[in-house]
Amino acid sequence: MPEHRAAVLGSPIAHSLSPALHCAAYEALGLRDWHYGAFELDEDAFGAWFSELGPQWSGLSLTMPLKRVVMPLLSEVTPLAEAVGAVNTVTWTADRRTVGTNTDVYGLVQALRSVGVSAPLESACIVGAGATASSAVAALAELGCRNVTVLARSAERAGQPLEVAEKLGVQARVGTLDEHAVVMSAQAVVVTLPGPAAGEWAKGLHVSGRPDGPMLDVSYHPWPTRAAQLWTSAGAASVGGFEMLLHQAAEQVRLMTGLQAPVDEMRVAGEKVLASR
Questions:
Q1: Series of mean pLDDT values for 10-residue runs along the chain (277 residues)
Q2: Strand ranges (DSSP E) for the chain?
Q3: pLDDT by residue (tens digit) across 34-53?
Q4: Residues 213/234, Cβ–Cβ less than 8 Å
Q5: Phi, psi angle pair for 217, to nearest 5°
Q6: Are the C-beta atoms of residues 3 and 35 closer than 8 Å to each other?
Q7: For residues 240 and 223, what is the distance between their CA atoms, to the nearest angstrom?
């Protein structure tokens, strides 16, 4: 049988869970002719590397800083990825046309559903305004939410998620990171701040009574985060970024191989890697 190759690309890449997740899927599915690797590539190196890929390549997983860089190089970008402004998955059609997809949104939706979030939502809060916040807007829109508050250090930082919200018909406003009452009253909270920044934010988070909705903190190691601990102690549900990573990878496996991903086996493999760190 012909060889199929796939890989995760980005910089830094050393701590990516993608190889463990995808290789576990291949093993469980009996795909012995599929191989998944990891390549450290930045914006300057990516274009030349991408242009030289041969017919054995079936899929790419992209992390920062390549999710935007790849878009003009593709034959097609799905409407969702276009709206979010980020592609994290590249696949090839039978005639070798390249298709860019965003499975981060799918991963976020599944993670939120795992703690009881369902449509329709009346209100949600996103803490942070980076690239993940844009995917979070799209995920909340898929769950029926039409009113989102984005908490950021400044309004200028929230331009990208606000643009995504406008494209998807979501009413969005920008608030400051110290608006704890908004966080407490939201039907769903998504914390997208990177680890150190999230820790600093959580130090000032005032949790009084039981929050109105569950929290997804996209950080996943170490877990639980300070914010998740506060949420759980107050009697509300919380889930970490591993659940998002797991399901976005499972959707990538489905898109790349055409087979339903073995989520349970992938979960075991990912948790094993995290336990060793």
A1: 89 95 98 97 96 96 96 98 97 97 98 94 93 96 95 87 96 94 95 89 87 95 93 96 98 98 98 95
A2: 4-10, 34-40, 57-62, 76-77, 89-92, 98-101, 124-127, 147-152, 171-176, 189-191, 215-217, 238-240
A3: 999 999 999 999 999 999 99
A4: no
A5: -105, 115
A6: yes
A7: 7
* Integer Cα distance of 255 and 244 in angstroms: 17
Residues taking part in catalysis = 67
Nearest residue to 7 (alpha-carbon basis) of 89, 73, 70: 89
Q: What are phi and psi of 188, to 5 degrees?
A: -155, 140
CA–CA gap between residue 120 and residue 251 (Å, rounded): 23
Question: Distance from first CA to last CA of the chain, Å, rounded?
Answer: 36
Residue 180, token pair as written in the block: 């704890």
Backbone Cα Rg of the chain: 19
Tokens of 251: 């959707």
Using one digit for the tens of pLDDT, what is the confidence trace for 203-243?
888 888 899 999 999 999 889 999 999 999 999 999 999 99
